[in-house]
Amino acid sequence: EVQLVESGGGSVQTGGSLRLSCTASGFTFDDADIAWYRQVPGNECDLVSSISSDGQTRYSDSVKGRFTISQNNAKNTLTLEMNSLKPEDSAMYYCAGSTVGGGWSDSGFWTPPFEYQYTYWGQGTQVTVSS
Questions:
Q1: Are the C-beta atoms of 98 and 118 separated by less than 8 Å?
Q2: Distance CA 119, CA 67 (A)
Q3: Closest of 22, 128, 17 to residue 72, by C-alpha
Q4: Interstrand relation of 77-82 and 120-121 (parallel, antiparallel or unpaired)
Q5: Closest-CA residue to 37 (of 6, 74, 66)
Q6: pLDDT score, position 73
Q7: pLDDT > 90: what percent of the chain?
Q8: Among 26, 27, 10, which Cα is nearest to 18's?
Q9: How far out from the chain centre does Cα 1 lie?
Q10: What would the DSSP string read from start to end of 56-96?
Q11: Per residue in 64-84, pLDDT tens?
Q12: What is the per-residue pLDDT across 98-125, written as a single tens digit (0 to 9) for each?
């Protein structure tokens, strides 16, 4: 059974930092693309950041320069370092994994999976940023 378990969420003030972690079992990061999504109730799930099995990263414009995604394949752990947090970063954050989507061009440029191609999802961790 595949499980993704997020941790590290909490409440911080504007400008603060949090580190989210996602630990996987029954699922290996070595051959997968992993991502962080976030969702505010009533809104769609938005991609925050993703990382390929060979370590290429992508960020949404709203978090670029503030958030850093990384993975430790030996520990099967994904991390999202979030700095300079803003109230609009408040959301439930989900870890997601895909083994069926994405791809590489001949030059090695990685195209991330689409949201529907992320087969495995965690239960989420809440991040609240107060002004």
A1: yes
A2: 24
A3: 22
A4: unpaired
A5: 6
A6: 81
A7: 79
A8: 10
A9: 21
A10: -EEE-TTTTTTEEEEEETTTTEEEEEE-S--GGG-EEEEEE
A11: 999 999 999 888 899 999 999
A12: 988 788 888 888 999 999 999 999 999 9
